[in-house]
UniProtKB/TrEMBL annotation:
Keyword vocabulary terms for this entry: Membrane, Transmembrane, Transmembrane helix
Location of the DUF6594 domain: 3-188
Transmembrane intervals: 123-145, 151-168
Entry protein name: DUF6594 domain-containing protein
């Protein structure tokens, strides 16, 4: 009976451990590529595994079993693009002249761009977009006299606004739809209540 009592407890502990492991994030493809390159290069890690485990971090078959202990979570698509793509090309063209590889053993031959710096750049771009899109659409809608061109301009800026939300936030589709509908409604109200300068001049001439 005592042995039987221990089985449910062992099963419960195994289930809890399995659940906690499933909560861990998967490593990013770029991080795995960098790890494999770092291990192979003699000027970096210079770690070469022999035997059946030499493809532990490079095999697509085992990739689903890998986890990341310190992932970059809650990243916007813009942040991911800057950290994965823009930073790479920046270092290839300009950054290599300003930042030198680290001398520490675990950073040997590598250049580190801090997450906080990339995050600040993302915030700056997001803030600029949040300011420019409403102001630019208002100015253009005020200066355009043709109603058809006004409507097309409104449609274009609404699409740009929606794409900006998708790129710079982690908002769900419901929130993006609500924000885009509100932005479009504001433009419709502006179109219906304002006259372009040419129309105002025409009214004054008629008087």
């Amino acid at each position: 009976m005592l042995a039987i009592r221990e089985k449910p407890e062992e099963y419960e502990n195994a289930l809890i451990r399995h659940t906690n492991l499933n909560k861990l994030s998967r490593p990013k493809n770029q991080d795995l590529s960098f790890l494999n390159e770092w291990m192979v290069r003699t000027g970096m890690g210079n770690v070469r595994l022999h035997g059946s485990d030499n493809r532990t971090w490079s095999s697509d078959e085992w990739r689903a079993d890998l986890v990341s202990l310190n992932p970059w979570v809650d990243e916007s698509p813009l942040f991911s693009w800057i950290s994965d793509t823009a930073t790479y090309w920046y270092h290839r063209t300009v950054g290599y002249r300003r930042k030198k590889p680290g001398c520490e053993e675990h950073h040997a031959g590598t250049v580190v761009y801090e997450r906080s710096t990339i995050l600040r750049l993302t915030w700056v771009i997001t803030t600029i977009l949040a300011c420019v899109l409403p102001i630019a659409s208002t100015i253009l809608l005020y200066t355009i006299a043709s109603m058809a061109k006004r409507l097309w301009t409104m449609a274009i800026f609404t699409v740009l606004f929606s794409l900006a939300l998708i790129a710079t936030t982690r908002a769900g589709m419901t929130d993006i739809f609500a924000a885009t509908a509100t932005y479009a409604a504001v433009q419709v109200v502006f179109i219906g209540t304002s006259n372009p300068p040419s129309a105002n001049c025409t009214n004054l001439a008629a008087r």
